[in-house]
Amino acid sequence: MTEIAALDLDTARQALDSQPFSRLVGARLTAFGDGGATLELDVREELHQQHGFLHGGVLSYAADNALTFAGGAALGPHVLTGGFSVQYLRPAVGRTLRARAEVVHAGRRQAVVRCDLFMIGDDGTETLCAVAQGTVLPIPAR
Q: What is its EC number (predicted)?
């Protein structure tokens, strides 16, 4: 069994829980595998900016982590974000942030990953508020 085959949602959740910042913002993985990952966090006042919208840094955090977990689903557990860009489409308003990432292309040296960031309203409606794209790189196991 390879390391990639051994990855599952529970293992990915343990990795997320080992990140103090992820625990601070209350992030959770709701899906993982087959070159994809979905990260969610509930919005609370401490995560807002001065106009009452979810802070762009929170959106960037979610994109970064979702991209990297999706890349890890394709490349294995020892990965880091090589870089990413995010485009904010509209103010982020809602009760939950959902970052849904999917590998666009994976090779031996990197994975290119796209992430769509949605706000979930009280009625459950998803509204796309940002998109991100990045590269995920394998690193040696420590």
A: 3.1.2.20
Q: Is 87 in a helix, a strand, or coil? A: strand
Rounding to the nearest 10 degrees, give the CA dihedral for residues 53, 22, 67, 52.
0
- Whichever domain contains 44, its CATH number is 3.10.129.10
Strand, helix or coil for residue 78: coil
pTM: 0.93
Tokens at 70, concatenated: 């999706």
Q: pLDDT tens, 2-14?
A: 444 458 999 999 9
Q: Which residue stretches of the chain have pLDDT < 50?
A: 1-5
Cα gap 40→50, rounded to integer Å: 22
